[in-house]
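Deliverable D2.4 — example input (structure tokens):
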């Protein structure tokens, strides 16, 4: 199994887990504490892109890198907006900080993997 397939499988699993947890938080009855709605909605919607990005990476498709970069940059922008909210005194959960750091780092690794896959394919 190639590294791109491992990474793609991880991205698809990450997307499905995000979809489940985000759906539960948005549509469930559990009290999630001081959630930040725009972060929660972004992560839920982005979970679909995670699955698509993972599938593209799995297959070594040429759009794997642009999709991974789009997810990475969108996540970083939402993380920055979340940071501004926190800095201005808005309520939040500390787990959101960790989750957004994890998502940003994860998609940085996925983008790097897609880039390495593309550069390897173009040199052969």
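Example output (designed residues):
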């Amino acid at each position: 199994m190639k590294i791109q397939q491992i990474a793609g499988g991880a991205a698809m699993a990450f997307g499905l887990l995000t979809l489940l947890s985000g759906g539960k938080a948005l549509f469930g009855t559990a009290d999630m504490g001081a959630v930040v709605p725009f972060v929660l909605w972004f992560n839920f919607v982005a979970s679909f892109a995670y699955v698509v990005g993972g599938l593209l990476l799995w297959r070594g498709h040429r759009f794997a890198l642009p999709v991974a970069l789009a997810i990475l940059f969108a996540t970083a922008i939402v993380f920055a907006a979340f940071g501004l909210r926190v800095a201005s005194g808005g309520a939040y959960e500390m787990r959101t900080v960790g989750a957004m750091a994890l998502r940003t780092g994860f998609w940085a690794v996925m983008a790097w993997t897609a880039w390495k896959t593309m550069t390897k394919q173009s040199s052969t």
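The chain has a mean pLDDT of 93.
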